[in-house]
Amino acid sequence: MYLHRELSRQNVPYYFLGGFACINVAMTARTTADIDIAVPNGQNGYGVLLDILQRAPFVQDTEGFISRDSYYFLLNSQAALSKLAAFWCAGLLKLKISSWANKSRRSGLKRDGDIIDINSIQNLLIQNGEKMPLKGLEGDAANGLWDWIQEFKDLKMWQLLDSSYKGH
To answer: Could you tell me the superkingdom of the organism this chain comes from (predicted)?
Structure first.
């Protein structure tokens, strides 16, 4: 609730994913050990989030693997540590769309949650006028995006993020 209050106070749009979203929005049950949050790119989105996370009650996790565009923080909540992953919004969308390349993921238990997550992050970027390079995606990211577009027939939505993207 602290993070929600701070982001709202500073007028930063956000979207919680995973276990937190399941608990607070009553979405499909998800098996996750962390909480993901997506915010708009730039100083007024991601910058504000990082400023909030770098002070109490948060402690940055420097022990685990940290990818180039994400930060991991621990939150002491009711005597238990919760992991919070803060991603650059486009980085989280790339991660989510990469998982869509896995056929068992697309048809498995996490399908509904992944659809909600991908649509929500995509909409957050579009509503904030953000762009995301799609044309140069490789590997699972390129394949997952193409599989998504083939299934949902929404190339025009993706082109709002990158007008040069024409598909696979």
So the answer is: Eukaryota
